[in-house]
Amino acid sequence: MRAVENPSEILISGGDNTLSGVAIAATLEGVRPLLIEVQALVSTAAYGTPQRSSTGFDLRRLNMLLAVMEKRCGFKLGAKDVFLNIAGGIRVDDPAIDLAVVAAVLSSNADIAIDRSICCSAEVGLSGEIRPVNRIDQRIREAEKLGFEKIIVSAQTKGLDASNYKIELIRCARIDEVVRALFA
């Protein structure tokens, strides 16, 4: 056995930057910050009733996020199959990956790739608001260490001084602001 110095590098593929449906999330596993790859596939339901499938992420939470995107943001996902996977075979319960799940789903639905220099770390509330998460400083430092140029965080995050980081902080209050930041 040998120690894994940087597990985030294992959990993020260095693959094709032009693929849609992939977003990077800054999460915590215990006290250790990790960056993980969230993969989504959205397609027209072939057999009438749309399928919802999730590997490594709570299916009920995925359904809730899809409902928020439909009701609060106007994205028509009700007649589409949605498949979600957390790369690397791990299971994540941290609500801080909500925003990356939303970003990956929207990316796949629009078939537009997300810039691989951007990661996300925020919870998504029922009204479509972007909520702050705990220990955001650790998450930002991990993203910075791995060479990310931008991280999307909640505009409600208190005590965060952008001058302390080399990475650009993109503060968003609602999902529509995130869509503009990612796809504009």
Q: How would you sum up this structure, described in words?
A:
The chain has 184 residues and is an alpha/beta fold. The chain has one domain (7-183): 2-Layer Sandwich (Ribosomal Protein S5, domain 2), CATH 3.30.230. Helices cover 28% and strands 27% of the residues. The chain contains five helices and nine strands. The chain has helices at 7-11, 59-73, 98-110, 136-145, 175-183; strands at 22-29, 32-44, 52-55, 80-86, 118-120, 123-124, 130-131, 150-154, 168-172. It has a four-stranded mixed β-sheet with strand order 1-2-4-3. Helix 3 (98-110) crosses helix 5 (175-183).
Q: What structural category characterises the helix and strand content?
A: alpha/beta
Residue runs with pLDDT of under 50 for 5 or more positions: none
Q: How much helix, percentage-wise, in residues?
A: 25-40%
| Secondary structure tally: strands | 9
Strand sequence of the main sheet, in spatial order? 1-2-4-3
Write down the overall mean pLDDT.
91
Indicate the overall shape. globular
